[in-house]
Design a protein that fits this description.
Distance between the termini: 19 Å
Number of domains: 1
Strand content: under 5%
Largest sheet: none
Helix content: over 70%
Order of helices and strands: HHHHHHH
Structural class: mainly alpha
Number of strands: 0
Length: 198
Amino acid sequence: MLWIMSILKNKTFIWLLLIVNLFGTIYGYIWYIPQLRNTPSQFLVFVPDSPTASLFFCFVLLAFLLNRNWPLFEVLAIITLFKYGIWAVVMNLLTLWVSGDLPWEGYMLMASHGAMALQGILYSSFYRVRIWHIIVGAVWTVHNDIIDYVYMQYPVYSSLYMYIQHIGYFTFWLSIVSIAIAYFFTQKTKRLDIQVRP
């Protein structure tokens, strides 16, 4: 366990992770461009779910490189990285089940989003999140579900349209699980100092 913590605090590793997440964030926003063109302006910030999650984590990593903590970004990162990481894996598996086929991009997305879900938790020992941060993160997350499945701004997976009510229900409970995970890993586990090492 100590060697894992040593790697996580290594400056070069954090820089590499920041670069990977930054490129993933840019790719994610590009992926959403067709949908964003048809999105009402008041919903724009809530539509690109996964890239916004990885953007939150970019701020977390940047703060670590400065030997600082930005707790609001930390809680938003752990909740949304886990939520949308797991969500994307499940949606691609569901696409494979419904259509019987999945392009190579689907497998790439499953791998990258699975890593997304993991990285937010791996760094959680270094977070300095308080209960009020979790409440803010919970409001953001559930509000995003309302935008997606009440105002119908959810990510477009055309082959899954017939299951949209079930997906909305699943997503709501995934949000609750993600918030609970954030609470556990930031309030019930040991805190460590994030002193970045060369």
